[in-house]
User: Fold these one by one.
Assistant:
Number 1:
Amino acid sequence: MIKKSMMLLMALTFCIAGAANAKMTLKPGERAPNFDLKGSDGHWHKLSDFRGHYVVLYFYLKDETPGCTTEACTFRNDLSTFTKEHARVIGVSVQTVKSHLAFIKKYHLNFLLLADPRHKVAKEYGVYNPKWKLDDRVTFLLNPNGKIVKVYPRVDPSMNPDQVIAELKMLETKKG
């Protein structure tokens, strides 16, 4: 009985903590906050630089952790499909550019990673988790005008790219 009560209490605590963070997350239809972050290519990037393209902006916890590696490699493997759908894939985490470069090299990643070591952008997007001092795993699909089309909270790293591709294809069908 005590064990069941403890498990229920723990589950409730996680739900409350998750709900508090979910309230801060931006919603579809809102304009995505602009940013100015240094990328793995050595250049500074603003969200406005990608106008005219769909943007898959995915926040992840940390380079080279199992889930984040799975997600990055799945995006890597599906990059040609994203390109066909006129979408740019951009990963953001608290790691430095140096860490991103090692991650890219080790896993042959073929898309841009941005460094947000001060959590400024993660906080603006409502995905910063102060308890762990890391970003939550959340993906935003942005339209070519910089508005949020869809938010994918607490994604399954192996499924997230497929979910975004399905949404992009549906958007193209609506346009045509």
Number 2:
Amino acid sequence: MRRPKPEDISSAGQDSFLDVVTNIVGILIILVMLVGGRARQVIQNAMPAQSNRVAALEQEVDVLDQKVAVAESEVEELAVQAQTVATAAAFAGEARLHLATAVSAATVEIERRKQEAGAAQTKAAEAAARRKELETEIEHCTLEAEGLAHLPATTKEVLAYPTPVGRTVNGEEIHFRLGEGRIAYIPIEDLFELAKSQTRRHSGSIAEMASRIESVGPVQGFSLDYVIEAKVDQARGQVLIRSREWVVRPVGTGNGETIEEALSPRSRFRQMLSAVTPEATVTLWCYPDSFDVYRAIREDLHRLGIPTACRPMPEGAPIGGSTEGSKSVVQ
């Protein structure tokens, strides 16, 4: 058998390769055509669904845009309403303030009128009570006048006092305390003598005497408190010691005599008056609760012709004097 030539083998192989390539290309073309047709069919089938979906989405977007527009409109309306409410609230606050002020003023006015009405009622009640008292008093006076008109005429002794011309007492004085409805003799001179004796016994330096307070008594129911004052007389070279202030205090209560006891013949008051000289003056220290006693004692002293001086005393005030005090005035 004859063997082929090498060049023939090469040509046959090349033809086979070209055929294979051609076949493959053909196959590929066919596949491409098939894939293209299939893709076109798929696209054609998918396009309506995609278009429907897009249309639905666009419709939803339109609906949402409408809702957004409506919501924005509602928000604007709410903002306007909120502004209106705020303005109304501001006006309401001012109106409330004005109303509160008016209520407060009305309350004050009502209270004032109540007070005025109460005062008027009180005055009316007081006037009615006073009118009732005056009517009762007029009735009593009328009855007394009618009774006196039918009484027989009587005479009564009336003491006539001289015109009160006052003069300062410079001579001897006898002091009495009128208090608690009683009259008590005040032994001022005896207490002063005791004070002088005690001051001489206890005298020390001038500084001590200038600020020293001492007491003596009791004597006949009274004690004496006094302040020592030392004064240097440089012209004479002397030291003067004197009492700057003094106070007489009763020891205990119930001192003295009642008016009935004092005006009896053997009373202590009568004994003290028996020693009175024509130049002496009786000074009566009278408290508010003993003016009746003072009037009775004054009438008795007037009958006896004894000069009398009165020293009215406030309730609770002590009997006392000082270097700057005033002297008694006799009438």
Number 3:
Amino acid sequence: MRLFKRGKIWWVELSRGVARSLKTTDRTEAETIVREMTIEDLKGRVVDLKGMKRVLISEFVDIYLGGRLSRSELTQKADRQTWGQVILCLGDILMTDITSAGIDKFVAWCTKRGAKPISINHYLRHIRAGLRWALKRKYILEMPEIEMLTYDQRGVTVLEPADIQRILQAAKEKRGYEFYALIAFYLYTGARRTEALSCAVVLDGDYPHVVMTKTKGRRDRTVPLSPHLIEILRPLVDNTRIRFEDVHPDTISHWFKEIAVDLGLDVHLHDLRHNAATYMIKSGMHVAAVRDILGHADIKTTMIYTHVQDKFKQAEMGKLRY
């Protein structure tokens, strides 16, 4: 606590940017008040420490994941992997011993090992979520400061319709009809990589649709199908299951990247989701409908694609000549 004066009145700084007036002009009285405040603060900390649950990081991870069974398997896997990296760097220390300096050490350790800023920020988000959970349940006394790394993020790559057709044609020629249909599925539904591999489909009736089950938020999502996609999928539907190739998701990304490189395009598989969203907005679909189709929890995420469309229109205006 820092004692200082404003005008004639003595104040005490409780933390950065937080101060309290002591309502006295007498320095001796002000110092007495601060001493009493410090004693009370220490007493409070002792009470808090008595209620603390002192566990090692490895013990905490089992408790933490056991209390978050509603989260997706991918999130749980990422949580365990992240905390495993923390243990490799800091050791299997007590949760109460995790400090801001320890987080900084972890960031430096990841950087030295060649991790990219985007990967380090991925770790930091999982660490922050875990520490917030721990703070509420008294596994730690206070929340360490965690600052995300800043870097030049790769923007959304919006493909021209002609390039999309080239990708689809190359997918069919190099990997067969099923891979072509899978790429079309990503483009017409905005599905994430693994979502397309586990969904039920209804092609006929008044409402042709797919139900995606392995979603990021672990909530089933229903997506209507366009007539063109229905015709592409029809040869692959067995009852209510789409018969896409039984390959690992990383293999799908690898195959797609091979095609993109061959075509001279700087595009990744996940960019197909961005393109689906961008073209949905461009075609005049309501942003709320696009949000539901993509499965965004917050419409602000969907609004990113309206900004992409603004940039697209601005670039198009540059072609205007008289």
Number 4:
Amino acid sequence: MIKYPIRNHPNDSPVESLSKTYQLSMLKDKHGRVHDYLRISLTDVCNFRCLYCMPEENIKFMVPSKLMQADEIDRIAQEFVKLGVRKIRLTGGEPLIRNDAEKIITSLSKYPVNLTLTTNGTRINEVIPTLVAAGVKSINLSLDTLKAEKFFQITRRNLFAKVWDNIQLLLENGFHVKVNVVVMRGFNDYEILDFVEWTKNQPVHVRFIEFMPFDGNQWNNEKVFTYKEILEVVDAKYSTLRLKDEINGTAKKYKVYGHEGTFAVISTMSAPFCSNCNRMRLTADGKMKNCLFSKSEIDILGALRKGEDIIPLIRQCVIEKEVALGGQFNSDFEHLDAGKIKNRSMINIGG
């Protein structure tokens, strides 16, 4: 993967020198995949109650003392950077709901990584100066409908106008805005063309996501609106151009001729993209997951608090990664019994 010799430069900061020193010892799983992308959940708390993300009842949030603290997040991130991590995404819950979210963003900005986050957009207006100062250039924002009444039905919050205004604010400030849309049959699939039409005059990048099974999210196979079906809907109205996907990307990218923005499909259920996966996850309580659907977790935070070396644990977790979908199911989702999947709810994992 490294095509040039790594040398420390006299003007390198300590962090840059650290990254260059360790990049030759990157994280590989037993299938030969290099892992250089870390997703860090800051909290399992959210100011929305989206039906596909969390259980509708009996929600139990983590005790604050069990969560990674800001300094612990920084120390753990530094170890991952030593091991070649080049991209860090902050997730939740809603990451910006944490009182120290801006402190964490600023702290992580000192590392030589592509720093970004996924948010529901409600607090973007409060943190834009911090994002700009931290060098954040791209934001993923969850928005499953363009209709205010449907938005309330999905999120159980009357905040559509707030989210819409903050998307416009991001665009005005030059951010690359990716809009994540979880498509559910019979619920919001009829809005696919509305989202694509949005890309005509604004440089938004809409990403349609197949509905995935998690604990308590009432998943069933009939709700999955597939990659193929999404393309059929779009192609019935528009002429599209297939774009080049990112090397380790999850999204199959397209553009309508003449449109400013793009659209893509994340086909986790019908056409998984596990063969080139480079992702690792830290839950808000400091457990490492090598896959969104992995059954096992390794307690990184617990080891850190005991003063133990966490690098061997990180390596162990990556090496043990299954070839696809946590080893729990395959692309034959039509015969999937979601009740047999052992996992947390999406909000407990981190989006």
